């Protein structure tokens, strides 16, 4: 039987604070918003 993969990633100090802040307040660019709008449009056009 396979063993679970252990990532071993541990954030400390400023890295941990920055990660937590970005998780609480994610920021997106206009380009990302446009990409998701286009993806939704394509999905709605081709859904069954």
Question: Can you summarize this structure?
Answer:
This protein has two helices and no strands. By secondary structure, the chain is mostly helical.
Indicate the topology:
Blueprint: H1 13-24, H2 30-46
Report on the architecture of this protein.
With 48 residues, the chain is mainly α. It has one domain. Helices cover 60% and strands 0% of the residues. The chain has two helices and no strands.
What's the number of domains? Answer: 1
Provide the gyration radius in Å: 18 Å
Range of helix content: 55-70%
Order of helices and strands: HH
Report the average pLDDT across residues. Answer: 93
**Which class of secondary structure composition applies to the elements?**
mainly alpha
Strand content: under 5%
Describe the sheet with the most strands.
none
Using the alpha-carbon principal axes, give the shape: flat
Please report the total strand number as a whole number. Answer: 0
Count of runs of 4 or more consecutive helical residues: 2
Keywords:
mainly alpha
